[in-house]
UniProtKB/TrEMBL annotation:
Pfam family, one: AAA_31
Stated family: Belongs to the ParA family.
Matching CDD domains: ParAB_family
Lineage, highest ranks first: Bacteria, Bacillati, Actinomycetota, Actinomycetes, Streptosporangiales
Name this polypeptide is given: Chromosome partitioning protein
Signal peptide: none
Sequence ranges assigned to domain AAA in this UniProt record: 1-173
Length: 252
């Protein structure tokens, strides 16, 4: 899940797509690669400074299995947490061998045979943490908010994806774009949605994620919106989006 712009619903989408898939019986691991640790917070996974986290996996070669925790009350959902220590990883990775493939190596060594999906929540930047995610991933999913300047900076992200595909991860593909923060009362939201669909066609999910107070509230309670308010418009939209993603995986 990547977009170097902040505030586009990236972590919200990571957490809620993962939760929705897990509620459909899929076993899902969320890897929190953002030093802010917002995905860890939303999944009620401890991420204080003294908790083993993704930083130690990337920099110190700690096995991924040593940090993965089951999300409370969600038996099919797991989280590899991030602490603020991860903020230093961008600099510390520079001097390490195969610095761009540290996450891929860690996930390859992790016993993921029982997992159906691994969702990597990237930081809002195009540094080494995001590069590690793109090298480790099979697919890129990009959330785009239905607001002014929605496509600003997207070209740079797509160029990075192309570069990583050419040099580091030949199987990487842009599989999914999800439109977030859609406000049906405004003409702008509709115009942005139309523009994104004209550029990216079937890559864009049919489901759009609405602006929703419940989506904003849920993380402060250590929950996804799927459990915080399953009847809300945001929860139902993410459930529909997860169904689309699962269907695409079957068709593919």
């Amino acid at each position: 899940m990547a977009n170097q712009k902040g505030g586009v619903g990236k972590t919200t989408t990571s957490v809620n797509i993962a939760a929705a898939l897990s509620m459909h019986g899929q076993r899902v691991l969320v890897v929190d690669l953002d030093p802010q640790g917002n995905a860890s917070t939303a999944l009620a996974t401890e991420h204080r400074g003294d908790v083993p986290d993704v930083y130690q996996v990337l920099v110190d070669d700690l096995p991924m299995a040593d940090i993965v925790k089951q999300v409370p009350d969600m038996p099919n959902l797991f989280c590899a947490p991030a602490t603020i220590d991860l903020a230093g990883a961008e600099i510390e990775l520079v001097s390490l061998v195969a610095r761009e493939a540290r996450l891929r190596r860690a996930l390859a060594a992790y016993d993921a045979i029982d997992l159906d999906y691994i969702v990597i929540d990237c930081p809002p930047s195009l540094g080494l943490l995001t590069v590690n995610a793109l090298v480790a991933a099979d697919e890129v999913m990009i959330p785009i908010q239905c607001e002014y300047y929605a496509l600003e900076g997207l070209g740079q992200l797509l160029r990075n994806v192309d570069l990583i595909r050419a040099h580091l991860n030949p199987t990487l593909k842009l599989s999914t774009i999800v439109l977030t923060m859609y406000d049906g009362r405004t003409r702008l939201a509709s115009q942005v949605a139309d523009e994104v669909r004209s550029h990216f066609g079937d890559t864009v999910l049919n489901t759009v994620i609405p602006r929703s107070v419940r989506l904003s509230e849920a993380p402060s309670y250590g929950q996804s919106v799927m459990t915080y308010d399953p009847g809300s418009s945001g929860a139902m939209a993410y459930m529909d989006a997860a169904r689309e993603i699962a269907h695409r995986a079957i068709v593919a």
